[in-house]
TrEMBL record:
It comes from the Archaea. The chain crosses the membrane at residues 28-48, 60-86, 98-123, 130-150, 319-339, 360-378, 462-486, 510-531, 561-583. It is a multi-pass membrane protein. Keywords: Cell membrane, Electron transport, Heme, Iron, Membrane, Metal-binding, Transmembrane, Transmembrane helix, Transport. InterPro entries: Cyt-d_ubiquinol_oxidase_su_1. It comes from Pyrodictium abyssi. Pfam families: Cyt_bd_oxida_I. This is Cytochrome ubiquinol oxidase subunit I. It is found in: Cell membrane. Its main location: membrane.
Length: 593
């Protein structure tokens, strides 16, 4: 599958506009997550040493934080409006079933606003320990906000209760109805269903939960029920009836009083069923959406409305990797800024200013090196393991395991290494892309499939390996810059740099590359989001809702796409100017902070 095939998925324009908005917001948001943490560390160093250079560095980082937060709030607001307008059915579902973290995001934003401006306006009014505490609360608020949003995104990537269709011994379970999703089915609904027929269709009974039965339903059935729910289908026209899954004998035994009692649980007004001539006719008039809502609300009640998104199996690794990405980008950007200061440092510069810039550069270089090591070897590894276990189709696309395309992992003989990383055993097998049924998300009982091919696009392999290649390069560069920063302390570092021909205290060749490394860090982060988001297509919520159902029925025109894109470009330009005007210029040696 190539780019053209990806574009042929439903809502290509909507997805492109959402990508522009969200990625613009994320490019800024990384600094909101990273800079206050760096400022907090600098304040701790000041409290330890009482060196005013650390206080100056902390204030510079805090100033950058405030600038990007202001623009980030604008892009975030625009992105949220875009999500509501472009994906109204997704928004409705989120507001009904996974609203808690989105609601708590309001308080996270308030926390950010309060402590950000307390930090800035209280800088010369609060004692250093109080400043450090406010900075701690500032980055905690930003991380708290990210945690809420990433929990929802993680649920979209791998919803709570997902049961994948692959085992690392190479066994696929598609013929057994997998992937499946576990839900809590109310017993008064179960009583009306033909359980043997459901089991023959792949539905699996997992246990009893008192008022409900825990069942695993194939995602192809789930997505079809969701499709019917959001297109206004009644039970009489649903796959539940057409597929023979409703127990006709049990339905005939119902009285009108029982139907009305069930309708009350389903949230239906009694007047809606008043004209029905029989209990069966009344039952068949019930909208699928009300039945599905009853099942989902029962599931959320059992799982916990406050914890349902946080129980996504990919959430812990996702939030760790998100924060790691932010710290990496912020670290490399700060290092680039101070590297440029060193390059432009006049020979007769004030010694105090030179000492400050050198100290800030060393701090940023070491911070960036630590961040990228954490990102690559810890959080990146954990996220890769999570993807391997819960999104095997995505992993197959990422690793390019199709025999019909050029594969970097195959050409470089990395399959065993990647299997060891993903599954903890070199004897494990990566999922074969070619063996994934192209129709695994299609329900055979309907003639309106959402897409021609349910597999994520194979182009992800090239996006992913471009990301990995760039990450390795900036990781090596970060390691070199950390050695440069520590050469005065570590004789080993100095000897190694001299052996590489880098004898200057601050090699100009490496300093000139700092800006490119900062841009590359942003590119790596962007490509990571592409892999994460495109990798679950054609799903909006993996195994639950496809993009054609989540989208608006009034998609934007090309002109509207261009106009909104221009808005985000203007915001980015404003941010660049603000950083230059209020952060770069005041930091010159001829000016004061």
């Amino acid at each position: 599958m190539d780019v053209a095939t990806w574009a042929s998925y439903p809502a290509a324009g909507d997805r492109l506009l959402s990508f522009i908005g969200i990625e613009t917001h994320w490019a800024i948001l990384q600094y909101v997550l990273g800079l206050p943490f760096m400022a907090f560390i600098a304040l701790l160093l000041y409290l330890r040493s009482h060196d005013e250079d650390w206080m100056r560095l902390a204030r510079t980082l805090a100033k950058g934080f405030i600038i990007v937060f202001a623009v980030g709030a604008a892009t975030g607001t625009a992105s949220e409006f875009g999500l509501v307008l472009l994906w109204p059915n997704l928004t409705e579902a989120a507001g009904r079933y996974i609203y808690f973290p989105l609601y708590m995001e309001i308080f996270a934003f308030m926390m950010e606003v309060v402590f950000i401006y307390m930090l800035w306006y209280g800088w010369k009014r609060l004692p250093p320990k109080a400043l450090a505490f406010v900075a701690f609360l500032g980055f905690l608020g930003a991380w708290y906000s990210a945690t809420m949003i990433i929990s929802v995104n993680s649920y979209m990537v791998a919803p709570t209760g997902i049961m994948p269709a692959y085992k690392p011994d190479g066994t696929y379970l598609y013929d057994q109805g997998y992937p499946k999703i576990a839900v809590y089915m109310p017993k008064d609904i179960v009583a009306l269903l033909d359980v043997p027929k459901l089991q023959a269709a792949g539905v699996e009974v997992l246990g009893d939960a008192g008022d409900s039965v825990i069942v695993a339903i194939p995602v192809k059935v789930v997505q079809q029920l969701v499709r019917e729910a959001w297109t206004g289908v009644a039970l009489k026209d649903s796959i539940l009836v057409k597929g023979g899954f409703v127990n006709a004998e049990a339905a005939k035994q119902l009285t009108m009083e029982q139907v009305h009692a069930l309708a009350e649980k389903l949230g239906l007004p009694g007047a809606m069923l008043a004209g029905a001539k029989s209990p069966v006719e009344a039952l068949l008039a019930v909208p699928v959406k009300n039945v599905l809502d009853y099942i989902l609300m029962t599931t959320v009640d059992h799982v916990g409305f406050m914890s349902v998104t946080f129980k996504s199996p990919v959430f812990p690794a996702s939030i760790a990797h998100t924060i790691g990405s932010a710290l990496t980008v912020a670290g490399f950007t700060a290092m680039a800024g101070y590297a440029m200061r060193l390059l432009r440092m006049p020979s007769n510069a004030d010694p105090g200013y030179r000492r400050y810039v050198e100290k800030a550069f060393k701090f940023a270089a070491v911070f960036a090196a630590i961040a990228i090591v954490y990102q690559g070897f810890i959080s990146g590894h954990e996220l890769g393991v999570a993807i391997a276990h819960w999104n095997p189709e995505k992993l197959a696309a990422m690793e390019g395991t199709s025999e019909h395309v050029f594969s970097f992992s195959r050409a470089l003989h990395l399959e065993k290494i990647m299997a060891l990383i993903a599954y903890g055993s070199a004897d494990a097998e990566l999922p074969s892309y070619d063996k994934i049924p192209s129709d695994y998300c299609k329900c055979s009982l309907t003639g309106t499939p959402p897409v021609d091919d349910c597999r994520p696009p194979i182009m992800l392999h090239y996006v992913y390996y471009t990301k990995i290649g760039l990450a390795i390069l900036i990781g090596l560069y970060g390691a070199l810059m950390a050695l440069v920063a520590l050469r005065d302390r570590w004789g080993f570092a100095n000897s190694l740099l001299n052996a590489l021909g880098l004898r200057e205290r601050y090699p100009k060749t490496l300093l000139r590359l700092a800006l490119a490394a900062a841009v590359a860090a942003q590119v790596v982060s962007t490509l990571g989001w592409v892999v994460r988001e495109v990798g679950r297509k054609p799903w909006t919520i993996y195994g639950v809702m496809t993009v054609d159902i989540a989208r608006s029925f009034n998609p934007p025109t090309t002109g509207q796409l261009a106009l909104v894109s221009l808005y985000f470009i203007v915001l980015l330009a404003a941010l660049v100017y603000a950083v230059y005007r209020f952060l770069w210029l005041p930091g010159k040696p001829s000016r004061h902070m």
